[in-house]
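Holo prediction — adenosine-5'-diphosphate.
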Amino acid sequence: MILLEGVTKVFEGGTVALRDIDLDIKKGEFLFVVGPSGSGKTTLISLVLRELRVTRGKIWVAGKDITKMPTWKVPHLRRSVGTVFQDYKLLPSRTVAENVGFALEVLGRPRSVIDRQVQQVLELVGLQTKGDRYPRQLSGGEQQRVSVARAFVNRPPILLADEPTGNLDPATSVGIMRVLDRVNRTGTTVLMATHDHAIVDAMRRRVVQLERGKIIRDETRGTYESINRVGDS
Ligand code: ADP
Ligand code: MG
């Protein structure tokens, strides 16, 4: 579903954010990308979204080589990749339902289809009674659930989440993880960048660990810290 081969990203000024990354993410997988601040997590997500271009290497997303893709095709690529960020990025002057349905409106979908899909996805995230509220009338955890609903409303095969629990307390974060787990169980491939130890340890999913732009661990049902680290008791 997502395949990186020999991907290197060097920023102007010479920072090597990612170094010769090979990564194969299958359809329906749930994968955490972990590592300290500056290790390259956001760069990896931005490359998959074609917000950044690789310096070297190849990336395939949903069967397409996006390193060669012409710019005019990128909006279409992004329709198959939902995104969730640390800061919910909701439109403050629109209701929850309008925020969630916005992308479908832009695509010119009929009102009846939009209403039905918005209602379904609000149920999925547990906000079916809050469609008429404005973002400022919601808690942080609820706002993040709205942004998951918005990312998932057109049922993309891939969901990318960059530190989605970064602004939330531990109990609220668990709620967001339940929602992402539900999204994953519909068959959606989920890639989540995080440095939230508790979440990763509770979920026991595939863990890819970055350190200074290199993959130093790729474990199937991993924890945040490697259990086999030298020096651990
Ligand atoms: P993380 O998300 O793991 O905190 P990032 O991918 O944001 O890490 O950053 C990886 C490295 O690339 C860091 O050294 C960061 O300073 C650098 N970097 C990120 N974005 C840019 C940019 N637009 N220009 C130059 N350097 C950048
Ligand atoms: Mg980041």
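READOUT: The beta strands are 2-10, 16-25, 30-34, 56-61, 64-65, 81-85, 158-162, 189-194, 206-211, 214-219.
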